[in-house]
Each structure stands twice: as structure tokens, then as C-alpha cells.
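Worked example 2:
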Amino acid sequence: MNYKTIDEYINSFPAPVVKALAELRAAILKAVPDAEELFNYNIPAFGLVPNSKRDQQIMMAGYAKHVGLYPHPTVMEHFASELRDYKQGKGSVQFPIGKPVPVNLVIRMVKYRRKMLES
């Protein structure tokens, strides 16, 4: 399915996933209020700098048992010790449904990535 808005994407999931995705989105936008909301690979993406390329975006996605955050491999490396309790990929982390989204950690990760892009 191709979504027209991030709200439409988020609301296509069951309530527990909706809650987690909404928390992720709010954390990303709290960290970077001027982030551009868009889609990449048919999932929500947030451009951290004007006219951002894919590697200048943070993406998120919903699944049945977790939500995924795709910040960038360098962000994952920097926060490795704080992410050790979560399933990870090279540039992604999974937050299980039914457990609190670590909002403060997500905010710090997004701010860190923005700072990297601005330097």
C-alpha cells in the first residue's frame, strides 16, 4: 500500500503499534522540530537537513511485534552501550511492542545525527 501521509501510515496498524509509532514520531520531531516529514521505501522518513538525501534522514517503521528506527550506522555505534538490550541491525534498532519506547534515548540519537550532518 502506498500511503499519502504519515498519519495514514501510523493509523494502518493495531493500537499498540500506533502508540509506539506515535511516540517515535513525537520524539523525532521534539529533537528536530523542523524535520521534513516524507516517505522513503514507503515508510515514514524525517529529513534532518533541507533537501535531505536518504542518508540524511531518519526512518521508522511498524511491524506486528516491534517498531523499527533507522537512524544511521554511525548513530548506532555511538549509542551502542545504551542499545545493547534491543535487537539491532547495522543501522537500525527494534523497540518491542508492549514495552516503553525509550523516548529520551531516541531524542538524543536524533539530535546526535542532526549535529553530525551540520558539522
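DSSP finds five helices and six strands in the chain. Residues 6-118 form a domain with the Aspartate Aminotransferase, domain 1 fold (CATH 3.90.1150.200).
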